[in-house]
Write a structure and sequence with these properties.
This is SCO6045-like C-terminal domain-containing protein. By secondary structure, this protein is mainly α. The chain is built from seven helices and two strands.
């Protein structure tokens, strides 16, 4: 590691921010483990965070999660590991779209969301025009 002195030297705050960003990237976005961190502990923490995200997504997508039963956290992890969190609704939506052969309630849940909202996988879901018009008529 080279040391930079003078006005271009990063401050202690900048160095800390860079290390924190590298840690977050390793935990939730598939980044490499930062220097000085125990990879086994990082991996255990990453898996725990994925389980927590799976639980939150199950609250937004109860029929999807129920369709996989006890296997839901593993299904969620298979599709979202290495992807940064985008919120429970979007995480679950991305899993629902990635899983092939959804049936029953899970397929109906996805179809209902797809008919009411537009979601391109990059930006937050937005209500479709007819959904917005129905909401206005109710007011």
């Amino acid at each position: 590691m080279s040391v930079v002195w003078g006005p271009d030297a990063p401050s202690g705050r900048d160095r800390l921010a860079a290390r924190q960003a590298a840690l977050v990237d390793a935990l939730v976005a598939g980044g490499p483990p930062p220097d000085g961190f125990d990879t086994a502990r990082l991996d255990a923490t990453r898996r725990a965070l994925l389980r927590k995200r799976a639980g939150l997504a199950a609250e937004s997508w109860p029929l999807l999660a129920a369709s996989f039963g006890e296997g839901w956290p593993a299904v969620f992890a298979r599709h979202r590991d290495g992807h940064e969190p985008v919120g429970a609704l979007r995480d679950g939506w991305d899993v629902a779209r990635a899983v092939t052969g959804l049936t029953g309630g899970a397929a109906a849940e996805l179809a209902a969301r797809e008919s009411a909202f537009r979601y391109d996988g990059r930006r937050a879901p937005r209500p479709r025009l007819r959904t917005r018009l129905r909401r206005r008529r109710r007011r």
